[in-house]
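Ligand: S-adenosyl-L-homocysteine. Inputs:
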Amino acid sequence: MKNNIIKSRVGGKSKRSGELLAQKLQAEGITNPKVLQAIANSPRHIFIPEILAHKAYDNTALPIGQGQTISQPYIVAKMSELLLGKKGDRTSSILEIGTGSGYQTSILAQITDKVFSVERIKALQFQAKRCLRAMDLHNISMKHGDGWKGWISKAPFDAIIVTAGASSVPEALLEQLVDGGRLIIPVGEQTQILKIITRQGDSYNEEQVEAVRFVPLVPGDLL
Ligand code: SAH
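Predicted complex:
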């Protein structure tokens, strides 16, 4: 029943709102056509509490319950662009840490072949799953687990994206990258620096992108 309600909220005027949001992000410097198309196609309003639906296509983070937030669309687009890398970089198998609302997951599922996503709060994972099903996206596998550990049985990944602020870079994530793979991760406490860490054999090359602010990547216990 609830799923049907979500499904009935997928279409309609969100198409135009998504297109307008994509135009806004393009004006802010997002250039990748695949990413812009995915933003234009995605009904962001189904991923947030209905009471905030009127803000769904604003370029802001919003609360989604459990003390967590749906990320700002600009940062979702920016990280997706970084994850795609340059022409020829592989994106057959992607790992996302911090499913949250599932909105970033839905964008990744439209621009890559296969997405694995890990979330520590069961209730959020459950709700995200419903939304992704309502969008008819079926190239996503989800796990209730601790993202600090990655997803060892599905590794290695062509790219890994972390959508929560990590106090340090999780060793397991570095180990779960293919050679040439990219880890996109915000590192720091209150505010973080968004980093791209590229694996080259047994060494890792780090680039800093920009300052960002995410909820923390919490160690350990699942909820
Ligand atoms: N991309 C999501 C961001 C959600 S906020 C969105 O736009 O909706 C970050 C998410 O990371 C939260 O849902 C939080 O529960 C999750 N998280 C925090 N620590 C985690 C951990 N150790 N393992 C998995 N998920 C974690």
